[in-house]
Amino acid sequence: MADPEAIAPEDELLLHTKHTLPHNVKRYWQKRYSLFSRFDEGVYMSSELWYSVTPEAVAQFTAKLISELLGGRGVIVDVCCGGGGNTIQFARYFDRVVAIDVNPVNITCTAHNCQVYGVADKVELVTGDWFQLSQQKLVGNDGNVSFMFCSPPWGGTEYTRTENGFDVDKMTPFQLPWLVDSLLSHASSCGVFLPRNSNMAQLEQLSVKYNSRVVYLYLDNHCVGLLALYGEICEFEWDYNDAFLESEEYEEGEENDANGEENGDNGNYSKLSY
């Protein structure tokens, strides 16, 4: 195994013990196995990834849901792949994954972590800015993109401290309306992982333009985020009994949004829990 300090462009230590973690992320050490169950096999994470990687159970749930709805074949593009948490799980269920990130350190982590999980041969890594890459063809002549996915930056650890919910229209670097437009320019369906306190009124406004569905993702009885789905995938019939194991619980129906208001009777919002 290569020296992580020699791999990272900024010479940041990527293979950590509790004692080497920066002080501001030491509190996440106890969550290491929920982020990567194979952490002890040499998983790489920069200090930022300790609080931005999708928990493994959530990433697996998302990949399995998308696989069941789309048939589990084809190419997935993972924009803002971070440390590869979602990329790894998509690679378990789909033929190929294109993982994109603007940060070379994240690409280094994703490449290594895909090797740890034995899926590196199914993953293509691309370092680049989505603002530019969104204007380019993402796959060659060997197939089309089946699904576009993005877990964009939420602005650090302070995203929950907002009075009216997380403002997805001012999300940086990608405002949600532009992000969804750019993702759907490459595939007929896409998904975006958003904060649990996202402003639901803004999400509903976007549903006027696209078929949409919002899935509340729960881990240990705690909502960890929303999976906003757009496009043709929302037209499929959802049969959770076929998609998931008996030990995985789910509920579907009306939910309260981040502002405490009811979503209504349109049935577009689901609550899924493990």
Task: Please characterize this protein's 3D structure.
GO terms for molecular function: RNA cap trimethylguanosine synthase activity. Belongs to the methyltransferase superfamily. Trimethylguanosine synthase family. Residues 249-274 are annotated as: Disordered. The protein is 26% helix and 20% strand. With 274 residues, the chain is α/β, with parallel strands linked by helices. It has a domain at 54-155 and 164-236: Rossmann fold, CATH 3.40.50.150. It has a nine-stranded mixed sheet, with helices on both faces. β6 (212-219) and β7 (222-231) form a beta hairpin. Mean pLDDT is 82; it is low at 1-9 and 241-270.
Any key phrases for this structure?
RNA cap trimethylguanosine synthase activity; Rossmann fold; Trimethylguanosine synthase; nine-stranded mixed β-sheet; alpha/beta; 274 residues; 20% strand; SAM-dependent_MTases_sf
